[in-house]
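Box 3.1. Reading complex inputs
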Amino acid sequence: MSGRLILGIESSCDDTAAALVTESGEVLASVIAAQEEVHNAFGGVYPEFASRAHVVSVIPTIEKVMADAGATPADLAAIGVTRGPGLIGSLLVGLNTAAGLGVGWNVPVIGVNHLRGHLRSADLEQARVKYPAIILLVSGGHSILARMTGPGEIAMLGTTRDDSVGEAFDKVGRMLGLPFPAGPAMDRLAAQGQPLFKFPRPMINEGLEFSFSGLKSSVARHMEKHPDARLEDVAASFVAACLDVLEAKCRLALTEHPSTALVVVGGVSASPPLRARMAAMCEGLGVELCLPPLRWSTDNAAMIALAAWDYLRAGLYPPAVPQVRLPITQY
Amino acid sequence: MSLTLALETSSGRFAVAVGRDDAVLYNSLADCEKGPERDLAWAVRRALDQAGAAPTDLSRLVVDIGPGGLGSVRGGVTFANALAFALSLPIAAFNYFEIVAHEAGPLDRPLLVALPAAGGDGYAGLIRAGQVVGMRFGPLGEIMRQAAGEAPALAVAGRLRGRLGEFLPDVERTDTGIEAPDPASLLALVRLHPDRVGAPGQPVEPLNETSPVFHGGVFHD
């Protein structure tokens, strides 16, 4: 490899992102064009509009990241681009952009698993993860527990059987009249209430799998029965139920698979109450807690670029074609 | 001497051609070697290799911006924008109806071009004397009848040309056989319309049902 940088491109859902990252995880520049205004009215991501917005924003985003870093094509060892999992129309914009740049700049293009990007996000700017580690990936699209024995060595422990925890946050947030994405507003609302309502903790004592659909439905039924309930208390009760489940699953994973560290990544890992709960649990268990800085918790291209370095070192070049579903164990 | 790369995107498969001035140096439709499906990077590298050229030899791109296969148009246009950005190349964009109008050549009757879209909707374009005079998106029957107007006879083209009898039973229809564009037509169009070539690196947008070209304007005086 000749260049010292990988250009990461991320367009799996509703953020168009580009970043330039060194092999050690130094981020020279990162740009994210968010689409919240496009999707706010729908209370969730509208896939067709997401794809169209990517078409408009992807080249300006890449142009800006190259300019911000003062980089030229000659600085690039490769282009790493999210190949899945994600929305098909969104993925194909990033992938075809990377393909066009790859031909024009004569640089190899590597299709990267978005989930592996999240796993590597905790090592951006500073190597934080001590292996072996239990990984909790919690976002709008995923709730995953895995164990890593090295940067690319992953064993799946459990995932959700229905909704992800972030999806539950967004759907309950819509019931409470919160803007999309609902996570930050939900946390603020919950902080003003009390967990007075005993919502279910789905599958809390049933292994390492998750389920959040029943919890969401329970909140909906409660609001139908009790239209005068304080929204702050509903939010606090919902968040408490989610945190109880997440803590119980992480505790069980660390017990069954003794590890040096717990790594919490994905958009929901930006939640202050989740961070506080995990910190207290890890302190009690004598396990190191590794969290990415807040800016790398949500979807970004720096994590894709850092993961692409793993692929490049291993000589892995998966086909750069969109994959709506892609297990975390695959590259 | 300008070297032009043409990308056809609307048919759902990608077709690529390379031309220098008036000569077509390569056309993927005449190439027996087929690469991975929908892999434009492979197709473009193959095209340039067969034409004896490198990406850095290109002077300009010409791209089909649809409408047509949603994923292929969007993917192809995105690829063209990225390649143009990488090499600071200008792009000329032509829509599907313009390409079909060129391929049909002079006709003694109006040409109705019909394409499907999602959910029972479609696209219609009407061409008179080689010029696209109107384009519409909407419910198939409605836009086909709007486009046909009072015409007693039409030439027809596009993926839905075989179904037009359902909507226009009393119109005499002549099938042109035109469905998937030839990328060599894009090379010819950009030679005929050099004013359509944009600024270096300037991206173009694929057409969709919200594009202004499908709203306003009239099919018939």
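In summary: Chain A has a mean pLDDT of 94.
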